[in-house]
Amino acid sequence: MDTYDPIELLSNRFRQAIARAYPEVGQEVDPLVSASRQPQLGDFQSNAAMSLAKRVGANPREVARAIIAHADMSGIAEPLNEQSVAGPGFINVRLAPDALVRLLEALDEPALGLRPDEPMTVVVDLCGVNLAKQMHVGHLRATIIGDTIARLHERLGHKVIRQSHVGDWGLPIAMVTAKLLELEDRGELSESLDLDELNRLYKQAQAECAGEHRAMEVIQRVGGHAKLEAELAAINAEADEHLAHARRVLVALQSGDQRVRAMWQRIYDVTMSECLRTCARLHTLITDEHSAGESTYAEELGQVVEDLASRGIAHESDGALVVRIEGIDEPCLVRKSDGGYLYATTDLAAIRRRVQQLGADLVVYCVDARQSLHFKQVFAVARLAGYATKPGASQPSRLEHAAFGTILGEDNRPFKTRSGENVKLSDLLDEAVARARRAVDERSAELSREERDSIAEAVGIAAIKYADLSNDRIKDYVFSFDRMLAFEGDTGPYLLYALVRIRSLFRKAEAEGIAFDPHAPIIITEPEEKALALALLRYPKTVRAAAETLQPHRLCGYLYELCSAYSTFYDRCHVLKADDAEQRCSRLRLCHLTARVLADGLDVLGLPTVERM
RNA sequence: GUCCCGGUAGCUCAGCUGGAUAGAGCAGCGGACUUCUAAUCCGCAGGUCGCAGGUUCGAAUCCUGCCCGGGAUGCCA
């Protein structure tokens, strides 16, 4: 048997049977094999007869009988008979016990049935922090969903390049750079500048440049407040001066002025060192080498725009340069009327580099769903201009916006602090870890302080990540510490706990001198054993589906079901106290395989695991 | 206005390529710890799949219209 996947094997047999029964339809028919939802009816089912009935002009149950008559299930499933046909024409299949064992043994190899695909290069755009700003809840999803999508593709053997499109360029950055230079001139710039302070100065710089133009409009409309008007005018004049100064700093930065550049670098370093620390704490594989900020495209923007204009793809409109796309009403602006470039321009340059230089066959943008129009436009322009096509390729690479919804508070409004500020991501992680710590203290007071610390860290992070990843990406979800750290239910801690129990079992076996034989014969007799076995066999296909659809929540759902099947098995089928040595060895092997699949799946999701909790 | 996304149990969510009696978790009720980690397991109860049409042997799933909620929508990113 050359594959571990019962659905594939059964599909082949059904395909052959259909071809024999109905030579006129050939091998093209999808046998529609899926896992049965009701174990009492069978393990798997084929729904082919119903769809085939119309094509061959017979009634579905007759078609089902014809398929059965031509089906050879030897070596895989129990023979099919009249009783196998149910309802309108479902064909129920029960795996042969020895086949189930062989499939499990085939799965029980180092790669767990996940042999590498035809290797591709995948670029995943994730994280997306901004200079001089703390990571906040908004970055949580872009970071962890992006990292998990990257891990999914790595697991399938692809070359994955993570890229954080850092917001490190443009006027806002120049404003804070100007602010810092000013402080330095006055000798008021702290040597130990950290991100909190930097973030404070950023907001201050923003406010200073913004002035009170809105208030002024209101006052002027109302009239009769000459004194106030004069005050606002003074503030605005000052703000305009700040803004003009910031623009001069931007020009200096862009032309490579050494002092300005050095200050920018300092802002960059302070921001990134702290953000990357948070990325590491989130158990993501995002490091310095994955930063590809907007600044790195600065030199290419002019070329891109020039190229689009000279080839007649972009046109002038009200002073701006736009690309119009068939099927999209809103044009894509690539150059402002003042000559400045926009984020679409940078993203076009990024696609060009990612596809043509990095060789991406797939580029995934893990970015907020609110930007879907933007990506729709940019992808279309990139395809039109050929930027999405690898040199020599006939087809453009796949460009995907892995959009995600908003994190909501318990009031169903976007998650903010009481004062309406964004919640600092590190505060959020601290809170989750502190709550996890309380739970660990309650239950496992016997463990050392250090051990409880590291367990709490892993449990807290796993809880936050699982709560996020287990929801369908595109939807908004409600953030709740109570729910994600709950003692019961579909949570990160539940998955970690299942693995802990298996690991504990093996420690106990070792302590009792019970040998584990990784090649012991597997004997499936109890329904709980069979349910666990069938769950294990679904692993490879689940990982592939999650990667293909860019939906980590499918893998989460699977792992929860696997753990659930294991917990039931664990409850009903004693392992170390099994009836005899054969059964004990078989069950130990089942436990071992479960632990490996679970640990592998958790690793693909990017959840930390623990030995005890 | 136009476009995008969502609407499934009291709450939070799954539901695969259209397939059998729509599934979990939480909360509620009732059970299981002298027994491998009970952060567990088992059972009960809980549904107009937003509404109305249509396609189909079969629709939560596909199509059309409408309702509700969120978002986007030419010079921020």
Q: How do you describe this structure in short?
A:
With 613 residues, the chain is of the alpha/beta class. The protein contains 21 helices and 13 strands.
Task: Tell me what you see in this structure.
By secondary structure, the protein is an alpha/beta fold. Among the domains are: 6-95, Gyrase A, domain 2; 171-255, no CATH class; 492-605, Isoleucyl-tRNA Synthetase, Domain 1, CATH 1.10.730. The chain is 54% helix and 8% strand. It is built from 21 helices and 13 strands. It has helices at 6-21, 48-56, 60-70, 97-107, 137-155, 171-185, 195-210, 213-222, 226-254, 258-281, 298-310, 343-357, 372-385, 425-443, 449-469, 481-484, 492-511, 527-537, 539-549, 552-572, 581-605; strands at residues 33-35, 44-46, 85-86, 90-93, 121-126, 159-164, 315-317, 320-323, 332-335, 362-365, 398-401, 407-408, 477-478. Strands 1-2-4-3 form a four-stranded antiparallel sheet. β7 (315-317) and β8 form a beta hairpin. α11 packs across α12 and α18 runs antiparallel to α20. The longest helix is centred in the middle third of the chain and has 29 residues, at 226-254. It is globular, with a radius of gyration of 30 Å. The model has no long low-confidence stretch (mean pLDDT 93). It binds one RNA strand of 77 nucleotides through α2, β9, α13, β13 and α17.
